[in-house]
């Protein structure tokens, strides 16, 4: 009788035990901001509304589901489904994809994890650790991703953590019949974090649908000094003649989210296709300071030098943010950004040109500088 009672008790407990071995978490961020921006069109008119490029200044709005299951023996499986959306109108972000931010399944153990699906590029992941805003959201503070890309489709990724080191190796299949190389991407990233110092490095190779190559190398550092954090990173980008990373077109690389989108009206930006080979050298210097447990000040300067045959242009941004934490989950902020361009990038800001391709199309007809002021509210759940 006692044995039967024990068996019955165990049977009743099994669902609870199984539940304890797996879990699903709902999470998200909503960042909405009022925006004033100068030189938002070729006439030099100002823009007043919500968001910049449909984004708040600090974070892209999103919600997601994460699941994990304990497989026993130190092994585990899991998944991530993350949706990006536009807080100002409720529409889907990331080219209108339902889970355009992330969508992958994982399996792993103490030796590392394998992930399969739509994932961040290793370049974007490594920049997160050494950028003052962890790669922000608004075009004024995140336009470096037009060089590196943000996400791969059809990606297989290995991530391993060993003491202070973390390594990532990633390959994205191109999915083009008859060509293993077309639209494919391969990359590797390494992070070292010990005490107040974080160092990162990354190498990324991406082919477009015609197998033209873009090479990207990254080095960066973050140093904590008391209540302050100092940031510096460098991106080297070299694209072969005609490299095209546009999303949704007939010539699509596996890198997505690299298309243009600098201001509410501009359609030709730093990502433009060049008829000749193109080199970009991108530099970031920044700092953040925790003035009180609730107040953080962040500032940064970003500069990109573009060189190609018969083309020489520079784009730069300086921004500052004062952030006040209302609670652990909610903060409000005041942000200011100033963008300017020189040389052959003149006319980049607030333009309406659609066919500018590195000097071989219609000249840019916008402005050489632009100021942005945003007051935002962000909630994390």
Short descriptors:
381 residues; mainly beta; Porin; 16-stranded antiparallel beta barrel; porin; Porin_dom_sf; Outer membrane protein (Porin)-like protein; transmembrane; cell outer membrane
What is the element layout, followed by pairings?
Layout: H1 2-20, E1 22-37, E2 47-50, E3 62-72, E4 75-84, E5 102-109, E6 112-120, H2 122-130, H3 139-142, H4 145-148, E7 151-162, E8 165-172, E9 185-194, E10 197-207, E11 213-225, E12 228-239, E13 255-256, E14 278-290, E15 295-308, E16 311-325, E17 330-343, E18 369-380
Antiparallel strand pairs: 1-2, 1-3, 1-18, 3-4, 4-5, 5-6, 6-7, 7-8, 7-13, 8-9, 9-10, 10-11, 11-12, 12-14, 14-15, 15-16, 16-17, 17-18
């Amino acid at each position: 009788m006692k044995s039967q009672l024990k068996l019955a008790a165990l049977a009743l407990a099994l669902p609870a035990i199984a539940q304890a071995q797996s879990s699903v978490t709902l999470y998200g961020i909503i960042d909405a901001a009022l925006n004033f921006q100068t030189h938002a069109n070729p006439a030099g008119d100002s823009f007043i509304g919500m968001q910049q490029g449909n984004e708040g200044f600090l974070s892209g709005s999103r919600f997601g589901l994460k699941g994990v299951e304990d497989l026993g023996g130190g092994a585990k499986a899991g998944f991530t489904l993350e949706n990006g959306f536009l807080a100002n109108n409720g529409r889907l972000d990331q080219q209108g994809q339902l889970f355009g931010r992330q969508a992958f399944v994982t399996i792993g153990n103490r030796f590392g994890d394998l992930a399969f699906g739509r994932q961040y590029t290793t370049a974007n992941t490594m920049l997160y650790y050494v950028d003052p805003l962890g790669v922000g959201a608004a075009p004024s503070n995140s336009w470096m991703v037009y060089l590196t890309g943000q996400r791969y489709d059809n990606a297989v990724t290995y991530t391993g953590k060993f003491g202070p080191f973390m390594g990532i190796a990633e390959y994205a299949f191109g999915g083009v019949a008859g060509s293993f190389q077309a639209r494919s991407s391969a990359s590797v990233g390494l992070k070292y974090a010990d005490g107040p110092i974080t160092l990162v490095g990354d190498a990324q190779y991406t082919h477009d649908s015609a197998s033209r190559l873009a090479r990207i190398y990254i080095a960066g550092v973050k140093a904590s000094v008391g209540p302050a954090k100092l940031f510096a990173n460098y991106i080297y980008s070299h694209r072969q003649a005609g490299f095209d990373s546009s999303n949704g077109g007939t010539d699509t690389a596996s890198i997505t989210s690299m298309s243009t989108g600098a201001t509410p009206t501009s359609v030709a930006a730093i990502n433009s296709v060049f008829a000749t080979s193109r080199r970009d050298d991108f530099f970031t210097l920044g700092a953040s300071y925790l003035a009180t447990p609730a107040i953080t000040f962040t500032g940064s300067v970003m500069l990109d030098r573009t060189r190609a045959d018969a083309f020489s242009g520079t784009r730069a941004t300086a921004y500052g943010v004062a952030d006040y934490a209302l609670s652990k989950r909610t903060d409000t902020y005041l942000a200011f950004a100033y963008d300017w361009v020189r040389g052959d990038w003149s006319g980049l800001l607030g333009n309406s040109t659609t066919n500018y391709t590195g000097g071989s199309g219609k000249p840019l007809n916008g402005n050489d500088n632009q100021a942005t002021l945003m007051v935002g509210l962000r909630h994390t759940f």
